[in-house]
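REVIEWER CHECKLIST
Item 1: Sequence provided? yes
Item 2: Single chain? yes
Item 3: Sequence as submitted:
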Amino acid sequence: MRIKIRTKLTFFWVVFTVFSVTAVLLPLFLNFRSTQIEDTIEKQKQIASNSAEEVANFLSIQFQALKEVELLLFPEFLENPELSGSLLQKTLFSYDAFTDIALTDPAGNELRRRSRTKVIQQQDLTSRSGEEAFDLTR
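Item 4: Structure as written out by the authors:
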């Protein structure tokens, strides 16, 4: 069985066209892909930078709020449970970022604690002396 010349030429031109298009588009596709990867990496860096800045701002606001509360604490507050409890409660509900707040003595034992989500009993108070956050605030 013989194949007609028209079929051979058609097959040749189809193969030639597919090869030519592939040869032209492959470098363009690879260049586009590398550009997309570079853009993605740049966006990720921007997101990480913005996130770090937002977290730093958030933490500075929280520490500022705690410093404001610290200025209000006098020895009389520690001695008076009603006064210190109401101050803790006011602070807890004045700043939306706090869910729990505790007042500790210099040894790290909780004197009072308030929470937005649960009722804290006297037996629920614990020692914070072994926690890293307590050591950092000294």
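Item 5: Key structural point noted by reviewer: The first strand starts at residue 100 and ends at 104.
Item 6: Recommendation: ____
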